[in-house]
Amino acid sequence: MKLALFISVFVIATCGLVYELIAGTLASYLLGDTVLQFSTVIGAYLFAMGIGSYLSRYVGKGLVSRFIQVEALVGLVGGSSAALLSAAFAQAAGFRVILYAVVIVIGTLVGLEIPLIIRILQDRLALKDLVAQVLALDYIGALVASLLFPLVLMPRLGLLRTSFAIGLANTLVALWALRIFRDELPKRSWLGAQCLASAGALLLGLALSSHLGAWADSSIYADEVILSRTSSYQKIVLTKSKHDVRLFLNGHLQFSSLDEHRYHEGLVHPGLASLPAPRDVLILGGGDGLAAREVLKYPGVERVVLVDLDPAVTRLFAANQALTQLNGGSLSSPKLTVVNADAFAWLEAGTDFFDFAVVDLPDPSSYSVGKLYTTSFYALLKRRLRPGGLFVVQATSPLFARKSFWCIDATVNAAGLRSVPYHVYVPSFGEWGFVLGTTGPYKPPRTLPPGLRYLTAQILPSQFIFSRDMERLASEPNRLNTQVLVHLYESEWEKINF
Amino acid sequence: MGEDQLLTRRQFLGLASAVGGGALLGSCRPDSPREAITGAIMGQSHRLGHRLVQGGFPPPKRTIETGVVIVGGGIAGLSAGWKLDRSGFKDFLILELESRFGGNSRWGQNEFTRYPWAAHYIPFPTAESAAVSELLGDLGVETGRGPDGKPRYDERFVCFAPQERLFIHGRWQEGIFPRLGATADDIGQLKAFDKAMAGYRRMKDARGRRAFALPMHLSSRRDDLLALDRLSMADWLKAQGLTSPRLRWYVDYACRDDFGTIVEETSAWAGIHYYASRGEGADDQVLTWPEGNGYVVDRLAGRLKTRLRADALVFDVEETSSGVQADCWDPAAGESVRVRAKAAIVCVPMVVARRVVARLRREDPPWIKAFSYAPWLVANLTVEDPPEGKGFPTAWDNVIYDSEGLGYVVATHQGLERWRRETVWTYYHPLAKGDASQLRKAALERPWGEWRDIVLKDLSRAHPGVARHVRRLDVMVLGHAMVKPAVGFMWGPERLASLKPLGRVFLAHSDLSGFSLFEEAQYHGVLAAQRALSALGRSFTPSV
Hints:
A: Growth Hormone, Chain: A, 2 domains, 16 helices, B: FAD/NAD(P)-binding domain, eight-stranded mixed beta sheet, 23 strands
């Protein structure tokens, strides 16, 4: 029995510190400013432990029963704290209140534990030994927790599972105590039911942890998350509401099924329909297969090569039924070849030619993507075009990021092409811009393929006209050694986002 | 009593240590990833150098004839070969003691990338650096001239953005000057410093020579400018009232980075030269490659292939009645070989030349001891999922504030791809603080494990837990990496004495310029080749 109680003290101490670390970690993850979050969480927690210790004096009879209840409760609250706090973050304003409330509840319960244990054991041995050993074990437990948490639990289990598993350990202590003192306890079965309920809830949480991750996501995204996957390159999230499917990469909206036709028709047809007889088309990026869907509307196109970095995206959009419905199964077309490669390196290595190229890459928000918006990149792409061929670049918003848009335009020009800028209104993005890079004279097409939902030959000429607030700005081209575009983009979108 | 205790003392201690030990053991694996790092100490020049001091080489058994023998296959030696070859003179041999050519521009390679072992960039050449321009044009790095008459370079070789970042106050900032947390006075002093440097950059003397030119030989000889050599860079800053500790760190960093000397021991002439000799604005850029200046070595060596001899330790260069002879030791064959030629170009540092060139050995001129050298430590780390750190993203050159190391350069920075799982970081650390010979001795004796810990400790300041990402860590100790531009040395009598001709033996090394720069090594190599051609009565178009 002594050994059992010893182990209990040790487990309790370990669990107690892990809860504190979980709250501190989550707070610094979600709110930033690690020093502030850890300091205030630790402070609040220790203060609450003091409250718990003080409150222990009001526990009179039924000491062991109260102890078992405290264990079951601390297991339940502490164990679900990570899930609780992740979910609470969706309501950003109330998050801090919930955070400190949870910390104080757990701290108070943990504060009750040691005084109760000491009192349970006080008749069984001398005070000096009792205090010495219980407190020593308490501190060893703290050391073990502080090592286990960062080195074993977090890397192996992650935050959610760690939290549930530690809660379960607390509940097991409750069940164990129940067994040890089974002969001394009144209302044994009622206590047992409480412990089992707590353990059951935690086990359920543990089993559902991976789903809870997605659920925590969905509180960040507006709609229901139907798929959440992390590839080597990015986090892929699909959401679905009644009428709408949305793709997010690293939290950035890529398309909404409600208006993506505006974007993709605008991206592909002004360039491709202007060519008399295009046969070979290259798509850089566009792993969702939506640009490919538009390209395949030209029966004369014999070959489409789609180069996208992330096989997880192209596989998803080739296999998932909801998504192949959206892209018309374009990625499975016998005309289309998917290449999972880095666009720049792929362009440099290849030797075959194309009539038309679609450059549908993420916005130039970092130096690594910024390389794909440089004079060197466009000059290389030009080398892969047949005489008279042209390419189109998605070029961010000429309204929200006017300097960035015109910088891309200047870059295409500096690469030895003639740029033709135009824009399309896409409700979920706003006013959106594209730049054609042409090797020959360009005239907007008079005819478009059948079956379009947005674009007509009549409306097309108007898209080459820029209103006053989107008019051309003189800009220096974006080069590999300056990457001016990344700076422009960052400063312009910073103003819009918050 | 024992019965009344919760546990006996022995039980308690046993269980406590079992639990505690178990937790520590469990944590041991992820906590000591440095044990999993492989690596070695590379390079062997100091061992061969030692062999040179010992002497006792057997007399040569065979004799080879050639037109010009070039001793040393670094940038000076390869440039001499390049100039001879370009002038239509093909009858020469370049002898290198190491198994690989390149000297301070040596490079290495693993399954992911090439990487430098020392010099890793060339600034855009200025108008004075005609020979460098000629070389870069010849290699296709310079692709022509723009409408403004300025040279155009292959964009793949112009250092990509972002170029530099600095780790300070727990985060990375853009650029090397420590702006994060700088006071208005710090920034004011930086501006004053920049202004003074811009003044020197534009300054020309009555004869139209730039105050500070590259190659340095073309600089103005005006007394007030040369007088700067008698001052340390630290004293110069003080004399200008530039006392900001941040500015001092910034200038000290530049001195250690370019010369391997601290600001207190660097000639103010050399220190100012660093800032005032190069281009301005859009011309203040650098050319770089994954293997650093090893790119130039590789291209030149490819071209001169048939005339290169590696693993050839030249131990004696003597002028004869008919020309010169160079005796070298071939460690593989275990024999000495004599190379007879009409002229010799000796492209080794003075510390080696004084042992190799017979006349210097005999005369032992006092000036030669004035050449002092800075030892360096260079490490190449193969890094998986390289940590980015907080703040400004990973740049080409990543510097840690207030560290004795210079930070690290990312070998794959000029890669065109967006994403790379593995890269190589080249970590530089001049052993600049203290007595050079003691530092050199200690560095050469230090085992690999200690170097590993020193390198990882420094990098951990900016990247905690970096050891988890490192697969391999190779180190090289360059005992005599760079000649020191010490106070009074740049324009003192000793360096000038070293420029005096030695008959048909032509010295060519950046040592002769007083600091170890690519441009200076190339200048002396080309100049010596031209002198050798003249001595042989050959015609050529001068490059310098």
